[in-house]
Amino acid sequence: MQSLREVLSHHPFVADLDAPFVEMLISCGTSVRFERNEYLARQGEPADAFYLIEEGEVLLETHAPHGSMLIDRLGPGDALGWSWLVAPHCWHFDARASEPVNAVALDGRCVRTKCELNHELGYELLKRFSILLAHRVETTRDKVSGLHGVPV
Questions:
Q1: What is the pTM for the complete model shown?
Q2: What is the three-state SS of 25-76?
Q3: 4-146 sits in which CATH class?
Q4: Which residues of 67-85 are buried (b: 16+ CB within 10 A; e: fewer)?
Q5: pLDDT tens by residue, 7-56
């Protein structure tokens, strides 16, 4: 099993961060595992972490009138969760493991504190999470557009 340092230094979301920033994140991280159909996050619940996926697949789903609607599929190399960064820090989607998932969980409060103390780290993470957030908006828009058959 790889150490957090090894995982973070190779994960695409943070691989190009300066080494001191990676060290700061290591102190906020832990390795986690989720079994098939286990939830990493539930829509509306407190978002107190984000995840860097190492292995497995996570389904992003949202509540729809007749059940859940699949928004996106995440796999190795993807990051899950921007809600820890934006108040009121509640998940906007359900995230469910469709197969066993190994990931690094980074404690949101710990990372926010480190970002307050080091604005360069905060800026680097904000750039990455802005891209992630824009992707989620585009993906959700595409799903809704396809559902209604009209451009949004």
A1: 0.89
A2: HHCCEEEEEECCCCEEECCCCECCEEEEEEECCEEEEEEECCEEEEEEEECC
A3: mainly beta
A4: eebebbebeeebbbbbbbb
A5: 998 999 998 999 999 999 999 999 999 999 999 999 999 999 999 999 99
